[in-house]
Amino acid sequence: MERNTIYLSVICIALSMILISVPVMAEGGGGGGGGAGGGRNTDASSILAELSSIKFILGGIAALSGLILLKTIKINRNIRTLLMFAVFVLFGVLVIMHQPSPLRAVVDPVTALATGSAITLKKTAMAVFIGGLSVIGAKLFCGWVCPFGALQEIVNRIPAPSGKKIKLPFKISNSIRISIFAISLVMIISIGSDLYTYHSILNPFELFEWHFEAVLAVLVGTVLIASVFVYRPFCYLVCPVGLLTWLLEHVSIFRVRLDKGKCDDCKKCILKSPCPSVKAIMDGDTLRPDCHACGICIDACPKDALRFGIWKKAKA
Ligand code: SF4
Ligand code: SF4
Predict the structure, then answer these.
(1) Nearest ligand, CA of residue 231?
(2) Of the candidates 43, 59, 226, 215, the residue with the CA atom closest to the CA atom of residue 142
(3) C-alpha–C-alpha distance, residues 246 and 170, integer Å
(4) 280-301: per-residue pLDDT in tens?
């Protein structure tokens, strides 16, 4: 168990380093050409300048507000839905958080590593933004900034016709997510394209261009119907940002923590939470399903045994 924790931490730190440094390294070997998102001057000062643009400042404020709310109030499902509606309007409708798509910003450093290609400054900044927030607090980007994550959560409030929501077994959902990423990696190396390409089959962020094509309508429609039954199906089953931020969760400074001394094992948190993560938190598992930092389990606990705090390994 101890050894697993060390291995996992090493893998996560290595991945964070790759995420942050590969765009810069790739830029060094990259060729010309503009590309969507413009600018290729990806030295540290250019990245910092890009990160001070209004989009990232607002995104940072949203994520840090989420962190403060999680630490100071109890967030029930109605409050959470209202907050997600605000995130959807702010970052999906008013401020454009999709261009460059967060999804491409995470896949392109890997593409750059595999093919020696360069990526743009805007994508580098987006990758640093997602990675940085995710290291500060578990899923602060996915749970508090991503408009497509917010949309799935809002739709998940619609009662399922059967009256029961489905919690996907994490081993299966994560295997599917990893397989899609692995297939994309093989495709990048062999044919130079992947499954998440803009205008391709698995990039719902194009929705926020507010123009509709058949492929996009089928993808978004399928995800939204699935969201009625399953909490954040795209995040758990497909999204490479979800995969990366899940890995980073294992080194996040702030995470949901259990105070075993206060817990009387009533399991209300597990019953009331939409995600598959709470049981793993209760069991003290090292490898936990994604926690989107919604705060519902914290609100559900009548003993205040759960809180969003600085991570410390629970004593056995
Ligand atoms: S996993 Fe993907 S779709 Fe889900 S919240 Fe994160 S970036 Fe958005
Ligand atoms: S463990 Fe689940 S219910 Fe608790 S904050 Fe994370 S996503 Fe929300």
Answers:
(1) 2
(2) 59
(3) 12
(4) 999 999 889 999 999 999 999 9
Task: Say if pTM beats, i.e. exceeds, 0.85.
Answer: yes
Q: What is the DSSP string of 50-93?
A: HHTSHHHHHHHHHHHHHHHHHHHS---HHHHHHHHHHHIIIIII
| Beta-ladder partners of 201 | none
Which residues lie closer than 8 Å to 40 by C-beta, 6 or more apart?
27, 30, 34, 118, 120, 121
SS3 157: coil
Q: Considering every ligand atom, which ligand is closest to the CA of 139? A: 1
The finding on whether 236 has its CB within 6 A of some atom of ligand 1 is: no
Cβ atoms of 245 and 251 within 8 Å: the answer is no
The token pair at 258 is 């259990």
Q: Which of 151, 145, 150 is nearest to 61 (CA)?
A: 145
CB contact set of 118 (below 8 Å; sequence gap of 6+): 26, 27, 29, 30, 31, 33, 40, 112
Residues paired with residue 306 on neighbouring β-strands, in sequence order: 258
How far is residue 217's CA from residue 248's CA, in Å, rounded to a whole number? Answer: 31
Residue 82 has pLDDT above 80, yes or no: yes
- The whole-angstrom separation of Cα 150 and Cα 84 is 5
Q: Which residues line ligand 2 (CB under 6 A)?
A: 256, 273, 275, 277-278, 281, 291-297
The rounded Å distance from CA 299 to ligand 1 centre is 23
CA distance 316 to 120: 46
Extents of the domains making up the chain:
2-249
Structure tokens at 304: 């205040």
CA distance to 100, 206, 259, 309, per residue, from 72 (Å)? 33, 35, 17, 11
